[in-house]
């Protein structure tokens, strides 16, 4: 998943290995089947036809990236925010109605997906800048979520504004299909930790942000101490 930081030859080899791995899994599921998403994909039909191999493998890659990497980083960013706010942790233990708000503010404050690339379908002007048709444009969601025009004092972690006004899941026809699942996973995880651990502190080793991918924002390591008494 960190292919952007690899030399071109290594990137191609890594991608081929991953696609070959998913191909072997798909062939195995066609023969044996299992209670999993890949089995559902190999058995799926669209207008009476099964998915082509390339489409099937593309779905697998999408599930790996969009269904795993993003939520993993959301959870890491969430606990990174809360570990430095012990009063908020205690408040959450007593007022579970705030869990949703804290998740939404984390999505804005430390967006798991920082940028996406889009291709313009026509010439357009944005904020006085003319962009030609067919241009590649980097959409920086993390910057939009810190836009002071939309969020006064954007570098503060706050729960007192419209928390659904962020664009951590994108917008329009490309709005994240898995957004409800990501929110549910984050809420279940956070509530489980709140149930069990009265306190959360940092570990002795430093937290290290991942730097291999320009798209996602998360941690390579995030040492935490979970206190259960």
Please, could you describe this protein's structure?
The protein has 229 residues and is an alpha+beta fold. The chain folds into two domains: 1-51, no CATH class; 65-227, Orthogonal Bundle (Cytochrome p450). The strands form five sheets. The chain has a two-stranded antiparallel ribbon with strand order 1-2. The protein is built from seven helices and ten strands.
SSE diagram, text form:
Layout: H1 8-31, H2 37-43, E1 45-46, E2 49-50, H3 53-83, H4 86-94, H5 99-109, E3 115-119, E4 124-126, E5 129-131, E6 136-140, H6 141-144, H7 179-196, E7 199-202, E8 208-209, E9 219-221, E10 224-227
Antiparallel strand pairs: 1-2, 3-6, 4-5, 7-10, 8-9
List the domain count as a whole number. Answer: 2
Main beta-sheet annotation: 2 strands, antiparallel
At the third CATH level, what is the topology name of the largest domain?
Answer: Cytochrome p450
The count of DSSP E runs of length 2 or more, i.e. the number of strands, is 10
Average pLDDT reading: 91
Question: How many helix segments?
Answer: 7
At the first level of CATH, what is the class of the largest domain? Mainly Alpha
Question: Top keywords for this entry?
Answer:
229 residues, 2 domains, Cytochrome p450, alpha+beta, two-stranded antiparallel ribbon
């Amino acid at each position: 998943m960190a292919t952007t930081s690899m030399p071109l030859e290594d990137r191609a080899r890594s991608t081929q290995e991953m696609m070959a791995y998913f191909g072997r899994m798909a062939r195995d599921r066609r023969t044996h089947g299992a209670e999993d998403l890949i089995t559902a994909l190999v058995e799926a039909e669209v207008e009476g036809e099964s998915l082509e191999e390339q489409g099937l493998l593309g779905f697998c890659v999408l599930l790996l990236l969009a269904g795993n990497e993003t939520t993993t980083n959301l959870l890491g960013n969430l606990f990174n925010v809360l570990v430095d706010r012990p009063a908020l942790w205690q408040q959450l233990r007593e007022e579970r109605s705030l869990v949703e708000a804290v998740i939404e503010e984390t999505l804005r404050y430390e967006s798991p997906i920082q940028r996406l690339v889009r291709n313009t379908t026509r010439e357009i002007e944005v904020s006085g800048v003319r962009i030609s048709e067919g241009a590649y444009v980097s959409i920086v969601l993390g910057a939009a979520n810190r836009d002071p025009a939309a969020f006064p004092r954007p570098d503060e972690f706050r729960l007192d504004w419209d928390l659904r006004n962020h664009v951590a899941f994108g917008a329009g026809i490309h709005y994240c299909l898995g957004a409800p699942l990501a929110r549910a996973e984050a809420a279940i995880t956070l509530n489980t930790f709140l149930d069990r651990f009265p306190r959360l502190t940092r570990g002795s080793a430093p937290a290290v942000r991942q730097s291999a991918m320009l798209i996602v924002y998360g941690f390579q390591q995030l040492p935490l101490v979970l206190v259960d008494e």
